[in-house]
């Protein structure tokens, strides 16, 4: 393949995709649901102001935001989706009020014909857009004001300490006085009303709401639009066409079987002398191991809250560690340890590739490590203080809990982390640049390595693009730049390049082949992946064009994953190619697991919820964490573990690893993850999907449905997978510690080391 053509293709994809993302991002700014200056009743009473709604958004963020229930389908899954729940309760208040006035009965007791008449009246009134852009006023009927007061009273009791709603708080894993100040609660209700108003109010001149008729709610005629159905069909066609074209490419460019006679006879890395900065990365992996253990612990606590909402086997844990905090820390720590493993691997590889140790490189690596510890500890502490309602609006935004899933940390900690990433990029560039002079053949691969490293550092800055009072639709747009483009996009590119580097360095891949493969894979992945960001934004207050683009390009994201079995098979062949490769069995097996979970977690479970019609009914249900767990931990987590094991092999003594504990850890983690999903989370999600289609999202997330005996049993069944998974993680931690203490090492040396030239072997042993 021609490098020039591949580079031109890469540049075209980047420029073209971000042009589209930017243009339609400006459309989201322009067409976001407006925040009215005043919400005024027909009799002239002012219910809320714009500042009330904005402050209410800050109150919502301080409670944990998307870590306690969800808004517009984004967030946690134990408590209700507040926008859908408010909408249903408000609709029922209208219907019951009219039924009592006209028939002296509740709405449920009326005959079908009368019910249909009242629904038609409700739909005509509640879907009408009465917002005046000239004055900024939103006028509502006096009856709707009564409905708002009624729902607000229920929410006030729920979020505060009404004894009659204690059962609800337990079902929703909410602590007493989640919001302790009545004025803050009043503003929170204003925000909840606005999010619900956007769900049911039609855009000017259109027959769809600001959220594209989401959530499903038959009472107010929220049903799938024609655009949604059309673009679902188109996305399936695109998927089939893309798979066909890529299959043709693979068939016409099939690689020959690995020729073991051309592979190195000894491990090329045995002669590698670790530099001071490379050795300094070891402490990063101790922290990675510790964070994995802590993260999984909080995962166990978070899952248990689903069955015992305010306690842990009778202990009132929610008083000290509410669900929204345990879930926040569970998610945040996953990002921290995965990113730490990847970044530390980069710091290890850069001097190894160039053979150059820049001045003060070790100092930089150690300083970055200290910054990492401060960011982790400081951000987690700030989130606790925010959720415990100990911070004001501004303090919470800067140092507490921002309420946005995956980017929960306060703005100060975001900036601190960005500075740390820029420092990491500087250390990477200093170490890798000399390799451009020494390795003419590998310059293209080195260039891709630097580009992916720069993207990791720079694209995290998109998390700074929203402010304390930014419209939720706009904040969601930028949040997905971080979650999708940064985590799922450029980390994926970085991972592809790093694995290629490792295999080239080990003599298992030709530099030309590795370079061409990396460039081609990156083009294919980013072609669908960048614009595919929009599939997260179908129902987040965005125009229909976002749905069209998201449906089309998110289908293309799945295309390269369909054939990823080739990668898994190739890695398996490599692991069996020569005797000395047995020393790298578990890092390579981890890479094979990455390929498997890419296919299953990102591919199959991802596409299950990606088409618009599927996501319309599934958004905000347990089908999403099926994809989240198998893609985030299965793909990125297993890659982080694989990279850690690879570096630890390079840094440890040349003694053979004991297979028992690490084998148990590998298989337990992967089997436990699969069981967790298949026997618990997925069945719950599918049952919720049925409830969402049949009755609406509000019911699929309600206490009445989620607390049935069937759902209770399914939640408890998760213990099986979770226990096996946790056992694997504990074994991994034990194994990593044993590399230092010696209990994970055999007495004899690697077979590959025995075959290493005696002179070099003596030199290496002396260096150790």
TrEMBL record:
Species for this entry: Pontibacter mangrovi
All residue ranges annotated as the Nitric oxide reductase subunit B cytochrome c-like domain in the record: 36-216
GO cellular component, one term: membrane
Transmembrane portions of the chain: 7-25, 228-251, 284-307, 329-351, 363-385, 412-433, 445-466, 478-504, 516-539, 545-566, 586-609, 629-648, 660-693, 713-737
Record keywords: Membrane, Transmembrane, Transmembrane helix
Superkingdom of the source species: Bacteria
Gene Ontology BP, a term: aerobic respiration
SUPFAM superfamilies: Cytochrome c oxidase subunit I-like
Protein name: Nitric-oxide reductase large subunit
Any one GO MF annotation of this record: cytochrome-c oxidase activity
């Amino acid at each position: 393949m021609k490098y020039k053509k591949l580079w031109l293709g890469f540049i075209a994809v980047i420029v073209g995709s971000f042009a589209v993302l930017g243009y339609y991002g400006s459309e989201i700014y322009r067409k976001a649901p407006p925040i009215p200056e005043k919400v005024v009743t027909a009799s002239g009473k002012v219910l809320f102001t714009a500042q009330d709604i904005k402050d209410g958004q800050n109150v919502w963020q301080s409670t944990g935001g998307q870590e306690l229930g969800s808004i517009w389908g984004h967030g946690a899954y134990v408590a209700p989706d507040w926008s859908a729940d408010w909408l249903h309760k408000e609709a029922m208040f209208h219907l019951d009020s009219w039924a009592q006035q006209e028939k002296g009965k509740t709405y449920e007791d009326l005959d079908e014909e009368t019910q249909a008449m009242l629904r038609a009246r409700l739909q005509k009134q509640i879907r009408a857009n009465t917002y005046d852009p000239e004055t900024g006023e939103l006028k509502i009927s006096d009856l709707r004001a009564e409905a708002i007061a009624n729902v607000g009273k229920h929410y006030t009791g729920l979020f505060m300490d009404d004894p009659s709603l204690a059962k609800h708080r337990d079902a929703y894993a909410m602590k007493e006085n989640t919001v302790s100040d009545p004025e803050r609660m009043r503003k929170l209700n204003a925000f909840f009303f606005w999010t619900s108003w956007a769900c049911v109010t039609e855009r000017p001149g259109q027959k769809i709401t600001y959220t594209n008729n989401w959530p499903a709610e038959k009472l107010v005629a929220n049903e799938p639009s024609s655009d949604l159905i059309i673009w679902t069909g188109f996305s399936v066609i695109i998927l089939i066409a893309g798979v066909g074209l890529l299959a043709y490419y693979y068939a016409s460019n099939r690689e020959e079987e690995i020729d073991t006679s051309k592979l190195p006879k000894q491990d090329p890395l045995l002669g590698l002398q670790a530099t001071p900065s490379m050795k300094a990365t070891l402490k990063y992996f101790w922290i990675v191991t510790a964070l994995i253990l802590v993260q999984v612990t909080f995962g166990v606590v978070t899952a248990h809250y689903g069955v015992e909402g305010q306690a842990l086997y009778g202990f009132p844990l929610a008083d000290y560690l509410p669900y929204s905090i345990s879930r926040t820390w569970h998610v945040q720590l996953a990002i921290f340890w995965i990113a730490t493993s990847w970044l530390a691997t980069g710091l290890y590889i850069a001097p190894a590739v160039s053979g150059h140790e820049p001045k003060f490189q070790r100092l930089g690596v150690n300083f970055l490590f200290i910054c990492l510890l401060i960011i982790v500890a400081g951000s987690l502490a700030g989130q606790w203080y925010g959720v415990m309602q100990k911070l004001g609006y501004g303090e919470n935004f800067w140092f507490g809990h921002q309420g946005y899933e995956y980017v929960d940390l306060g703005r100060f900690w975001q900036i601190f982390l960005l500075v740390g990433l820029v420092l990491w990029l500087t250390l990477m560039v200093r170490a890798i640049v000399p390799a451009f002079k020494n390795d003419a053949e590998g310059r293209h691969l080195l260039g891709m390595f630097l580009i992916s490293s720069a993207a990791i550092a720079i694209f995290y800055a998109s998390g700074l693009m929203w402010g304390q009072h930014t419209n939720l639709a706009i904040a969601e747009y930028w949040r997905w730049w971080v979650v999708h483009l940064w985590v799922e996009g450029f980390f994926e590119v970085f991972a592809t390049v790093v694995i290629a580097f490792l295999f080239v360095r080990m003599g298992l891949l030709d530099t030309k082949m590795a370079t061409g493969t990396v460039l081609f894979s990156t083009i294919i992945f980013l072609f669908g992946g960048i614009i595919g960001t929009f599939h997260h934004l179908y129902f987040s207050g965005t125009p229909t064009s976002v749905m069209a683009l998201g449906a089309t390009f998110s289908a293309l994201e799945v295309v390269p994953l369909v054939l990823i079995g080739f990668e898994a098979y190739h890695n398996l062949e490599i692991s069996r190619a020569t005797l000395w490769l047995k020393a790298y069995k578990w890092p390579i097996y981890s890479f094979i697991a990455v390929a498997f979970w890419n296919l299953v977690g990102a591919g199959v479970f991802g596409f299950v919820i990606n088409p618009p019609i599927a996501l319309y009914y599934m958004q905000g249900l347990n089908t999403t964490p099926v994809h989240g767990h198998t893609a985030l931990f299965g793909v990125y987590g297993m890659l982080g573990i694989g990279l850690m094991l690879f570096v630890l092999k390079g840094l440890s003594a040349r003694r053979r690893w004991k297979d028992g504990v690490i084998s148990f850890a590998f298989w337990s983690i992967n089997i436990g993850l699969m069981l967790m999903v298949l026997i618990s989370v997925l069945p719950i999600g599918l049952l919720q999907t049925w409830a969402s289609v049949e009755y609406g999202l509000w019911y699929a997330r309600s206490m009445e449905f989620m607390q049935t005996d069937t759902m209770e049993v399914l939640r408890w069944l998760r213990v099986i997978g979770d226990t096996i998974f946790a056992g694997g993680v504990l074994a991994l931690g034990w194994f990593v510690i044993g590399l230092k203490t010696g209990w994970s090492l055999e007495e004899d040396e690697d077979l590959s080391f025995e075959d290493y030239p005696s002179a070099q072997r003596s030199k290496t042993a002396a260096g150790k």
